[in-house]
Specification:
Lipocalin, 8-stranded antiparallel β-barrel, 2 domains, elongated, 8 strands, alpha+beta
Length: 234
């Protein structure tokens, strides 16, 4: 009987001692479950945010594509009413950055130009760029106004390869038909592979009238002719 009472007392003591430990384990399991649920919710929220961002990027790309198409259509509509009275030919040279290295580059420009109301000069023609032993010919179109020039082009061999040329031009002093040309923001892009080749090109072009059926102007009026061409380009 003595031992039975002792065993009962020990059982009660152990039960009392184990009870807090069991409660602690139960509480820890609940906390772990809550933390896991919180992590899953955060992960799901992060995934949702990423999907929304990608959706916005896709929508923005579609809008940009539509804008480019509209600009192209607008340009084509403009040049239908433009009389191309000038020929612009020349060479710019400089550098092309490929894989972080600079390679000599040369760009030959051969375009027709005409005056478009409120837009200055409109260009349409071709241009060929030489980088190392490679060459690409582009169909070009663009504008020039207030000593700024902006030309875009698409490769004749691959529509995904494009050239973008932005810069400045100015008449060369003591010259009737020569202009300096600097493309300071220029690049070739390949949409199919996200390749971008920055360009820095500087050179000069010669502007000559293409209308030959007008009366020949006497030499004494040559200065006025040069001024007219200058006004047309600026």
């Amino acid at each position: 009987m003595k031992y039975a009472k002792l065993f009962l007392a020990l059982s009660i003591i152990m039960a009392v001692a184990i009870a807090p430990v069991s409660g602690a384990f139960a509480q820890t399991d609940a906390e772990n479950s809550e933390i896991q649920t919180d992590k899953e919710q955060r992960k799901a929220y992060s995934k949702e945010i990423k999907e929304q961002r990608q959706s916005l990027k896709d929508q923005l790309k579609d809008l940009n594509d539509q804008r480019k198409n509209r600009l192209g259509d607008t340009f084509d509509e403009r040049i239908q009413n433009v009389e191309f009275t000038l020929s612009v030919e020349g060479i710019t040279s400089g550098w092309a950055i490929v894989d972080g290295k600079a390679f000599p580059a040369e760009f030959i420009l051969n375009v027709d130009a005409g005056h478009a109301e409120k837009r200055g000069i409109v260009f349409s023609g071709i241009g060929t760029i030489f980088i190392g032993d490679r060459e690409v010919t582009f169909d070009l179109k663009g504008f020039a106004k207030n000593n700024r020039v902006h030309i875009n082009g698409v490769s004749q061999d691959d529509d995904s390869i494009k050239i973008h040329l932005k810069g400045h031009f100015a008449p060369i002093a003591d010259s009737e038909d020569s202009y300096t040309l600097a493309f300071t923001r220029a690049a070739i892009t390949a949409e199919s592979s996200d390749v971008k080749i920055p360009l820095v090109l500087v050179g000069d072009v010669t502007v000559t009238p293409t209308i030959t059926d007008k009366p020949v102007v006497d030499e004494t009026d040559s200065e006025d002719v040069a001024t007219d061409v200058l006004d047309l380009l600026t």
